[in-house]
Amino acid sequence: MDKFESFSGVAAPMPLVNIDTDMIIPKQFLKTIKRSGLGVNLFAEMRYDDAGNEIPDFVLNKPAYRNAEIIVAGDNFGCGSSREHAPWAIKDFGIKCVISTSFADIFFNNCFKNGILPITLPQEQIDVLMKDAEKGSNARLDIDLENQTVTTSEGESFSFEVDPFRKHCLLEGLDDIGLTMEKAGAIDSFEAQAGQARPWV
Amino acid sequence: MTGKTLYDKIWDAHLVHEAEDGSSLLYIDRHLVHEVTSPQAFEGLRMAGRQVRAPEKTIAVPDHNVPTTEGRDKVIENEDSRIQVEALDRNARDFGINYYPVSDIRQGIVHIVGPEQGWTLPGMTVVCGDSHTATHGAFGALAHGIGTSEVEHVLATQTLIQSKSKNMKVEITGRLAPGVTAKDITMAVIGRTGTAGGTGYVIEYCGEAIRSLSMEGRMTVCNMAIEGGARAGLIAPDQTTFDYVKGRPHAPKGAQWEAAMEWWKTLHSDDDAHWDKVITIPGEEIAPLVTWGTSPEDVLPITDVVPAPESFKGGKADAARRALDYMGLKAGQKLSEIEIDTVFIGSCTNGRIEDLRAAAAILKGKKVKDGMRAMVVPGSGLVRAQAEEEGLAEIFKEAGFEWRLAGCSMCLAMNPDQLAPGERCAATSNRNFEGRQGRGGRTHLMSPAMAAAAAITGHLTDVREIM
Fold first, then answer.
1. Sequence-ordered alpha helix ranges (H) in B328-379
2. CATH class label, A7-196
3. Which residues of B touch A26 (CB under 8 A)?
4. Residue B222 is labelled as binding a ligand
5. Per the database record, which ranges form the Aconitase/3-isopropylmalate dehydratase large subunit alpha/beta/alpha domain (chain B) (predicted)?
6. B122: number of CA atoms within 13 Å, CB side?
7. Of A7, A100, B372, B439, which has the maximum CB count within 10 A?
8. ipTM higher than 0.85?
9. What is the CATH number of domain B6-163+239-243?
10. What's the CATH fold of domain B166-237+268-285?
């Protein structure tokens, strides 16, 4: 996984609440056995009409947001299915950070596994960021994971919380499995002890 | 020192390692795998030269995109679906994991097969690359969905990196009124909390109305915990649980059964346990429910009317406006006058034998309204066989329902069972999202009995009127 570096990028405003993973990547694109190439299908049913033409009103089809690297979203982003195709599609499109008042649990976890930073902020700060995002490509948000801040194009800065372990993994681009395998001894002894206590498992 | 919740107890019994920063390594007792969210995980193992650490604790079954029509064990026509199912065949064989292929009568929806075969037991940790893994919480097992990276992590290490959730108690007191089912309970809870109300929590469902449910009903309740945003839903095991588990192929036997029972009987929340949130709903007050919008929280009693978007606060008002537009409904319209053209009975929410019995009881001697498409998709080959033995299949067929083979089918429409744009479906599944059952398709969620009632009348119907 690539290291997550501080960046400044265009943010696409998506104020709709409860954007679910069926919207982010509809089921017909789950029939892949690869992780790559899903960006073109991100938000497919909102982004393209039945004939496959772009719907001009959809935010990511607007010239200002075609290269967006951030999404500012309504409450409960990423609810529904556990499909990791959702963050794969977001990442493949070029989005590195999603900001909302709240995220669904599984989607939130999946983001970190793919080098995407989900940031949770209170409603009044989301309102400020949404307004800033609506200014289009002239306004860029600064995302600084090291110092845990989001800064608007006007220079207004908000701090966010992030789990220290996840922050470390994102900043260093670490692979979870490799880290866990370093604890193989602890897993071995757990299995031995649990095997005695609960032999039917 | 305060007591522990059931969640605390299962968590503590599976803790391998706890880091100073609060991230924990949790041991996983059962890992369920299906064809859609696993290919990339197995590919990752191969690329890194890693093995499956505990193939005997790993169970695979194709369900999401298998056709539900005859002949599917010979050929799956959709090439992408076939490639995924073949990949699962190969991965199961190469890594030596337990496998129920399409040709096996035990094949079905992963969350129905696991309990049916006795893989799911009280006190276990169960994960699967599918959000409806919450279903297994009905056994007092800590069960939740994970992403594909986590599937790979569990395959390689039999553990998961987790941070602990908070504890929520949802108590359903008293008894349910006639015509009200487990599905109505779980929808009522989501209607109350909203789809994000459970975020950050593990829910334990309790109370007399929950205790009175069968295992099938309890699975329906826990199944939709994820729709309320919770990491997992739990119901403490009791005699109903033990009776269901006993004698299943992978349940413990003999002395091991006795030892297991001794531990299982301790699996309940202590009286002095700490709850971060408590919700109480009187069972008597729950009516048969339907959804009107495009989120599972858009729940109302069948006797109600489509709400006005202005009646909601904040971003939900815009979302409701969008939902009514998508659903082709008008504020003030009676829910019971909404006409449908499709009925889908099945899914991991309501594809078990009790669900088919409930629907068949309404349909017996009646006919599906002319021009409608109605489909029953049993949750597993064994549920299907049992329903045939009990004469339920005949009732469905005589009423005009298609009697299908087991799979996820029209719940998520990855297989050929889909809605066309504008089609409107009474569904016993779990999600009414835009496009969920097919692009432009409109979904109303409800119980099997309510779906059966709608099949007869051709519109959303209060099942109590035809019971």
1. 347-350, 353-363
2. alpha beta
3. 435, 439
4. no
5. 8-458
6. 28
7. A100
8. yes
9. 3.30.499.10
10. Aconitase; Domain 2 (3.40.1060)
